[in-house]
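Recap from last week: sequence in, structure out.
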Amino acid sequence: MVFKPISPKKISSQIAEQIRSSILAGEFAPGEKLPPERELAEMFGVSRPSVREALNLLASSGLVMSYQGGGTVVMSLMETTAGNPMTELIRSQQERALDVIEVRKAIEASTAFYAAQRALPEDIRTMERIVDGLRENLAGLKPSENLDANFHLAIAKATHNIVWLHLMQNIFDAMKEFQQSVWRAVYLTGEDHHLLYQHHRRIFEAIRNRDPEAARAAMAEHLNFAEQRSSAYVAQQQR
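Predicted structure tokens:
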């Protein structure tokens, strides 16, 4: 038997492995930027070319994408190199957004359930900040669709299940344009905004109180309401 000499791993491969582990552990969410090359080089105690080569390795595997002048962004595990096909489907057939909401009802009832079991103190603080932002926006009826999306993604992150997180990010990316249109056309009154705030508050409190069944029920109630309003919006557009 002939043994081959053991060669140490390249520095770039070791850097790529650490960043990959952080992404797959949910420490960097889909759409989030990695620190700049200069900062990464300082963190790892290596040269910038080694970091650049590591990022190229991650990009070739589809985990990140680098933009000229825009940094390096973590990609969704559910996304294809051609982008998000669901986005185009919803753009061309708005009623398909209702199919997505139907799927969300099943998925997010579970994410709320598991978040109530697994959320760490920092997860609770993130959700509380978002809910406080929703409350502050009640004055003047400021649009809160971004806070709404961030709240649902924070719940997915609080499950500490990387698949839940990437799946929900993919869905919200695809639904972004539709959700913005619904907010501007349907949620118009102070009562609407207050009701949405109360929904999110109840979900948050159930998760904070470690009550999985209450979190599941509160999420189901919220998404049933969202489905009704979204259906009304689609019906308006088809007239």
